[in-house]
Recover the amino acids of this structure.
């Protein structure tokens, strides 16, 4: 039996900029429809070129077809690395589907993976589920696609500190990112409310720092108080290696975030000697910004660089995030060691001390061949050479960073904080606040008009944030993420001139069936 769900009637050689019926998200740069169908059945064979084994194996699991020599009786899906396509960039690809042959070509393996993801979106939604093709034939419209992303940084951020996300749920989120051709997972691993990554040299970071006594219920101004239930969780180094490898097989780079010098209370509950007061602290049970920051002493800096050394062993990422946001100056003001540092260095104030501190981490990471990433506070005290700035307090920090010549990832809270409400209806789960509906995400442009062409080139891309104070479960995480991450995928991938919200909405209806097949608890459009 041939399932007809993906069979399309269209005139020969129609050029479709927005092939609504093909329902690909994010929309490819160029799609040319042809007549005819390509049938994937039991006789279909996948052929791989050297360097494409991982992608061929993944496609084989989706299509239920073996990777072996073509059969004269069936159709062929071929994966080929082709250096002549290098003008498409390291993530570009072509997909050429004729009645007997689906040819996936790319200059690099990432492009082959994206070609395979596009092919999956030409199949029935069940191709995104666990049941697979079985004995049924799948039919794909013949067409030709040439595609490459608008931005090199297309990310999803998860906060595993306020609420821990079990390893299998992280892997599921990675699969969801991969479906949308995102290539970066920003993994927020340490904060006031929990330390979530095993560090061998400092075991108390997880034996003490990963557990909190209880959790604030509701907003700070609500009367509910605390839930009285202990809470915890962390990733072992083996878990981290598994997550990083799983993501890498899907062409997703995992960028760890180790927060400093603020958002430090969980670490200081384990090792108060690296704080400013020596006070015995507990892992924070409230939301907001704790006053407890790391000291700027040699010993605290050495501790943090020891932690980073283990992090660098686990994460091959060129980019390493050190937070740098929301650092209350109070404890440094009161700490004679911090004041002595300010005096010895001839610094103006605590803000300059913050910049000096981040500068030490920048040198440390640069000397190890990595690039520091931080929230936009890291440039408040001046230029930080070579660092990547995440602009979260609107676009101001990003614009300033690009003017300094820093690369920028646009993560403004008013467009990309998906922990904000997505509708004003009464049925939404309690969120932190804000309001970012789907069309607002879709219409976001990560390149601010204030930048000139040279500065605009410093915008690496964008990502969606899922701060988890009010995201207690994986189901709510998925509800907050989707479909807004679908819209952001198109912001990050599709050429600006080809974006069209009406077309997106139409394609999204089919696309949500894919999310359903993946078991993702997306927010229904009509909710
Ligand atoms: C942030 O939301 N504090 C980066």
């Amino acid at each position: 039996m041939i399932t007809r769900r993906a069979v399309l009637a269209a005139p020969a050689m129609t050029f479709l900029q927005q092939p609504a019926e093909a329902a690909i998200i994010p929309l490819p740069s160029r799609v040319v429809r042809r007549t005819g169908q390509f049938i994937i059945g039991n006789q279909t064979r996948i052929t791989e070129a050297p360097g494409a084994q991982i992608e061929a194996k993944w496609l084989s699991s989706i299509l239920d077809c073996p990777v072996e020599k073509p059969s004269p009786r069936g159709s062929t899906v071929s994966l080929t690395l082709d250096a002549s396509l290098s003008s498409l960039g390291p993530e570009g690809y072509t997909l050429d589907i004729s009645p007997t042959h689906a040819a996936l070509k790319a200059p690099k393996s990432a492009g082959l993976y994206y070609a395979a993801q596009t092919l999956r979106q030409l199949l029935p939604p069940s191709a995104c589920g666990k049941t697979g093709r079985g004995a049924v034939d799948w039919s794909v419209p013949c067409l030709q696609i040439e595609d490459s992303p608008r931005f090199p940084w297309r990310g999803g951020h998860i906060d595993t500190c306020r609420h821990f996300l079990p390893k299998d749920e992280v892997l599921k989120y990675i699969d969801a990112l991969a479906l949308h051709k995102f290539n970066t997972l920003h993994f927020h691993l340490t904060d006031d409310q929990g330390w979530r990554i095993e560090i061998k040299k400092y075991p108390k970071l997880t034996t003490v720092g990963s557990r909190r006594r209880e959790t604030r219920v509701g907003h700070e101004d609500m009367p509910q108080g605390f839930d009285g239930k202990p809470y915890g969780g962390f990733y072992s180094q083996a878990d981290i290696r598994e997550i990083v490898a799983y993501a890498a097989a899907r062409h997703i780079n995992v960028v760890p975030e180790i927060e400093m010098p603020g958002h430090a209370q969980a670490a200081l509950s384990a090792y108060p000697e690296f704080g400013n007061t020596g006070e015995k602290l507990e892992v924070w049970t409230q939301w907001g910004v704790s006053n407890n920051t790391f000291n700027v002493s040699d010993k605290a800096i050495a501790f943090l660089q020891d932690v980073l050394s283990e992090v660098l062993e686990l994460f091959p990422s060129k980019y390493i995030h050190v937070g740098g946001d929301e650092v209350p100056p109070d404890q440094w003001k009161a700490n004679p060691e911090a004041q002595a540092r300010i005096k010895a260095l001839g610094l103006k104030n605590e803000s300059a001390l913050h910049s000096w501190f981040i500068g030490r981490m920048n040198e440390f990471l640069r000397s190890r061949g990595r690039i520091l990433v931080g929230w936009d506070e890291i440039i408040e005290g001046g230029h930080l050479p070579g660092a990547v700035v995440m602009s979260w307090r609107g676009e101001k920090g990003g614009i300033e960073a690009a003017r300094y010549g820093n690369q920028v990832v646009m993560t403004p809270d008013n467009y990309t904080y998906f922990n904000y409400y997505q509708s004003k209806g009464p049925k939404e789960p309690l969120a932190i606040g804000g309001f970012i509906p789907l069309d607002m995400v879709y219409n976001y442009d990560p390149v601010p008009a204030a930048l000139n062409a040279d500065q605009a080139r410093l915008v690496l891309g964008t990502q969606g944030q899922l701060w988890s104070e009010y995201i207690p479960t994986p189901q709510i995480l998925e509800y907050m993420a989707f479909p807004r991450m679908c819209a952001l995928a198109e912001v990050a991938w599709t050429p600006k001139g080809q974006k069209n919200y009406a077309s997106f909405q139409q394609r999204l209806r089919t696309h949500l069936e894919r999310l359903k097949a993946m078991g993702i608890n997306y927010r229904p459009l009509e909710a």
About this structure: The first helix runs from residue 53 to 63. Residues 94 and 146 are 5 Å apart (CA to CA).
